[in-house]
């Protein structure tokens, strides 16, 4: 099963809406700042990097946004390779991604997010 862009945008918009709604409750105000903690950012980036190899199938595809206009075909090593892997699309697909963020929301508490008023 493949995802379409509209579905992905809907999943992301729902997630952002949840975060903003919960942050407003936590702040007790409609004026607040939401920031991801450095630890949470690092943990998520490494989870993404661990799945980056699953995106190898796009090598050889027509240059586009997803292949970074053909840049995906270049061999990248070291710090540059890790940076690319950490910023790759979620390698297990939209269904797995949706399940993960739904589980995070169900746990409550905005784990990994700091809210200041």
Automatic annotation (TrEMBL):
GO molecular function, one term: oxidoreductase activity
Keyword check for NADP: yes
Keywords: FAD, Flavoprotein, NADP, Oxidoreductase
Superkingdom as given in the UniProt entry: Eukaryota
InterPro entries to which the protein is assigned, alphabetical: FAD-binding_Monooxygenases, FAD/NAD-bd_sf
Cofactor: FAD
PANTHER family from the UniProt entry: FAD-BINDING MONOOXYGENASE AUSB-RELATED, L-ORNITHINE N(5)-MONOOXYGENASE-RELATED
Similarity comment text for this entry: Belongs to the FAD-binding monooxygenase family.
Name of this protein: Uncharacterized protein
Species assigned in the record: Auricularia subglabra (strain TFB-10046 / SS5) (White-rot fungus)
